[in-house]
Amino acid sequence: MPVILAIESSCDETSVAICDNGKITANVIANQTIHENYGGVIPELASRVHQQNIVPAVQQALAIAKIQKKQLDGVAFTQGPGLLGSLLVGVSFAKSFALALDLPLISVNHMQAHILAHFIDEPMPKFPFLCLTVSGGHTQIVLVKDYFDMEIVGETLDDAAGEAFDKTAKILNLPYPGGPLIDKYAKQGNPKAYQFPEPQIKDLNYSFSGFKTAILYFIRDSQKVNPNFVEENLADICASVQHSIVNILLNKLKKAAKQYHCTQIAIAGGVSANSGLRDTLMSLQDSLGWEVFIPKFEYCTDNAAMIAIAGYHKFLQNDFVGQEVAPMARMNF
Ligand code: KG4
Ligand code: ZN
After folding, report:
1. Which of 212, 252, 253, 330 keeps 20 to 30 A from 57, CA to CA?
2. Any idea which ligand is nearest the CA of 269?
3. What is the torsional sign of CA 9, 11, 12, 17?
């Protein structure tokens, strides 16, 4: 049965995982802390650090899984979407590795992989289910009909939910990436302390750019009255912002669940690590008659385990690509 080595390098995490017959036996993640100094990911720097990290990460993953190169059956990699320079490092490595070892290559879509992270461990959702995929670059409601048969039924028209968290954090002078910090401070705050308007967007789509501007003006106006407004009210501001983002996300998800008669509901992507989103979703499940699926923390943010499980299912379907494959900064399902 197949042993797959998987590479993820779409943004600022270099990650390598091994999937041994459907079980993840290694998931090495090398974080790039260098970007904290710049308030966001610097693409040029990200590619260089991937270049330094990728070979040690592969060696470490093989050692953890106690697998020798000759035992591998396939190489999966993130083809896109993501930062082109970052993707290039992972794609080039995967191609060379597969060529040297004469292994088949498996291309994986990063956003599909976030969703397929639900198939790493039990409990697993049953098809068809709805997945709210929320990351630093994407906010989508996806109708998942099968492993690789997915339809985006709603998405953001501008900023992603993760960007709304990160940009708010920047306004509050918190370091990058701010999402986890907002989550941390929100735990001590009152989520109803301040109200922010919910964007009125048609259908199942989202918009977060106006929301971000509303927060910017609110902070600016409050600081005119009290220059220490942010320092004195950080927990309440974070709790209120988080509460608003979670409400915006879940209101459209409820609408989608009704429209598609779905009760199997999942979340995926970096923002699915948010405790406000996780707790609210769990508290809703009984009243809405939903069965809710929330990934383990380590499978929410970028990781190669999700690429490995996606690669495993593609391997079972004999879905391989040739050496002409190239990274794609934008990539549809
Ligand atoms: O999926 P991901 O690791 O990378 C992308 O594919 O974009 O998502 C990263 C995003 C960032 O915007 C980060 O701030 C956000 O996920 N994030 C969180 C939390 N953990 C990560 N946002 C809110 N609360 C969290 N606990
Ligand atoms: Zn991601």
Report:
1. 330
2. 1
3. negative
